[in-house]
């Protein structure tokens, strides 16, 4: 039997066969290459190595559970190829409150104030000048409340001025502060400073001042009439003119925008009491005409001193008759005509009335000379 001999041709065929096997092995290794996947979720980075599968498979390998409203990028059914980054955005629930109205609840994978407000159905508010708290660019978290304030037009009445104001203020007190309207301790504001602003409202500021003042009140005198037998019936004489009194009243005055609207009496004090006017009323029966009283000798002596006893004298110096009456004095005691034209008895009668009313001092020199006073 002929020994085996390896010819060049056989060797060449063997090497070609070996090359094919080597190519097959390399291809198999290439087909089973690993992909490196980064999963960003809940603020952490999870690294996953896999040879095949989808994004959903990668999340399973990273033990990432999804809620129904969570967002995943790329989509869950995307095939994993090469290096891949998967981002999981969790759905959060926030409330959007516009101008203190009922809140709108938003549950979605949203990260910013602007995005949440748009999802709540208020996409136009930012363009219309509304302000947001937190601000439009701020990030938000689950459970946050976003407050939106739209500009409103109101009327502000203060210090005699009325003006229209477009404002983003939330409350009346904020509007006043933004417009440099300072309130005094007693000033009044309607609506109240803590009230929420509404469109087309009128905000009224009343300047209030309380002032204490004193008023003087005249207390009128009364008149008292007293009977006296020193005067004939029908005759009167003022014994005391009296006087009016004075009371000082203290008031608390309320002044609103410069005008008095109310005053409250705090108390009063009589600083000068009134004094009654006293009038004497005669009760004496007058002497009959022509009669001379028992004391006529006194009048005779007085006439002797005053006029030399001449009851019809006219001295030319303004005094008339035996007792030297002035015409006005004569008329004040009820006389008529001129004194020297009346009888002696009439002159004595009128002199008695004058003496009862005013005393002997009506004849100062002669009454003193005769010892009548």
Q: What can you tell me about this protein's structure?
A:
The structure is a single chain. The protein is α+β, with helices and mostly antiparallel strands and 373 residues long. It folds into five domains: 55 residues, no CATH class; 58 residues, Ubiquitin-like (UB roll), CATH 3.10.20; 55 residues, Ubiquitin-like (UB roll), CATH 3.10.20; 68 residues, Resuscitation-promoting factor rpfb (Resuscitation-promoting factor rpfb fold); 83 residues, Lysozyme (Orthogonal Bundle), CATH 1.10.530. It has eight helices and 18 strands. The protein has a four-stranded mixed β-sheet with strand order 2-1-4-3, with helices on one face. It has a four-stranded mixed β-sheet with strand order 6-5-8-7, covered by helices on one side. Strand 1 and strand 2 form a beta hairpin. It is rod-shaped and about 170 Å long. It starts with 7 loop residues before the first helix and ends with a helix.
Strand line-up across the major sheet: 2-1-4-3
Helix/sheet category: alpha+beta
CATH-derived architecture of the largest domain = Orthogonal Bundle
Low-confidence segments, ≥5 residues, pLDDT <50?
1-31, 289-294
Mean pLDDT: 86
The major β-sheet equals:
4 strands, mixed
Order of helices and strands: HEEHEEEEHEEEEHEEEEEEEEHHHH
SS strand fraction: 25-35%
- Helix percent reads 10-25%
State the distance separating the first and last CA atoms.
207 Å
Give the tally of structural domains. 5
Number of helices: 8
Task: Give me the CATH fold name of the largest domain.
Answer: Lysozyme
The CATH class of the largest domain: Mainly Alpha
């Amino acid at each position: 039997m002929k020994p085996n001999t390896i010819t060049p041709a056989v060797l060449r065929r063997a090497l070609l066969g070996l090359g094919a096997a080597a190519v097959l092995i390399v291809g198999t290794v290439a087909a089973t290459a690993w992909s490196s996947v980064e999963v960003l979720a809940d603020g952490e980075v999870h690294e996953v190595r896999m040879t095949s599968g989808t994004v959903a498979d990668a999340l399973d390998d990273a033990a990432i559970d999804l809620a129904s409203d969570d967002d995943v990028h790329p989509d869950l059914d995307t095939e994993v190829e090469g290096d891949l980054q998967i981002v999981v955005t969790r759905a959060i629930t926030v409330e959007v409150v516009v101008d203190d109205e009922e809140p709108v609840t938003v549950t979605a994978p949203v990260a910013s104030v602007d995005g949440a407000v748009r999802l709540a159905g208020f996409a136009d508010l930012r363009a219309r000048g509304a302000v947001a708290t937190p601000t439009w660019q701020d990030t938000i978290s689950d459970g946050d409340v976003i407050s939106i304030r739209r500009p409103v037009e109101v009327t502000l009445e203060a210090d005699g001025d009325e003006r229209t104001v477009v404002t983003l203020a939330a409350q009346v007190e904020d509007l006043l502060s933004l417009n440099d309207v300072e309130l005094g301790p007693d000033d009044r504001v309607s609506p109240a400073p803590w009230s929420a602003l509404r469109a087309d409202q009128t905000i009224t500021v009343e300047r209030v001042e309380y002032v204490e003042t004193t008023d003087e009140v005249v207390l009128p005198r009364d008149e008292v009439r007293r009977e006296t037998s020193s005067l004939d019936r029908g005759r009167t004489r003022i014994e005391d003119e009296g006087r009016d009194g004075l009371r000082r009243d203290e008031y608390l005055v309320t002044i609103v925008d410069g005008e008095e609207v109310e005053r409250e009496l705090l108390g009063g004090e009589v600083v000068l009491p009134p004094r009654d006017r006293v009038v004497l009323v005669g009760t004496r029966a007058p002497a009959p005409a022509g009669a001379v009283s028992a004391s006529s000798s006194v009048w005779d002596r007085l006439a002797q001193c005053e006029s030399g006893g001449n009851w019809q004298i006219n001295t030319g110096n303004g005094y008339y008759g035996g007792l030297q009456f002035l015409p006005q004095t004569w008329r004040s005691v009820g006389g008529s005509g001129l004194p020297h034209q009346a009888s002696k008895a009439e002159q004595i009668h009128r002199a008695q009335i004058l003496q009862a009313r005013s005393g002997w001092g009506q004849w100062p020199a002669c009454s003193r000379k005769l010892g009548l006073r």
